[in-house]
Amino acid sequence: MSLKKMYSFFVLIGAAFLLYVIHKMVFYVLNIKEASFHYSLETLYFFFLTLSAVIFKVLLTVKEKSFDNVGMSFLLVTSVKMVFCYLILRPLLQTPKLDNPVERINFFILFIVFLTIETLFTIRLVNEKQ
Fold first, then answer.
1. What's the rounded Cα separation, in Å, for the pair 101 and 118?
2. Which letter, b or e, does each residue of 39-68 get, where b requires 16 or more Cβ atoms within 10 Å of its Cβ?
3. Per-residue pLDDT tens over the stretch 92-112
4. Closest CA to 34 of 18, 19, 22, 23
5. Which pLDDT score is estimated for 26?
């Protein structure tokens, strides 16, 4: 894999690490205890980072084979990601709402942040000239 292709993965890992540090600092400042969470922050970041890396790899492969299908491939892999996220989120949805709303909010914020990163990557891919 060329350095140009690897650059996107390095940016993804760097952004995820930076977001993780900021996230931990916010939890520390707001005195939010993660001990009662169903999924730890590290687990969620690993899950979303892995899915994003897979999406990046799929989009880069589709770009090489058929540039015109990058947008549709993004929609397809994002839909598959949403199914995986729902399966992970299901235990959180089955707990009473008053129990721990911070964990649900945390999950959705992470989902949106990583979806934004993937969308920006896809926009950059589609706008490249061949």
1. 26
2. bebeebbebbbebbeebbebbbebbeeeee
3. 878 776 566 788 888 999 999
4. 23
5. 93
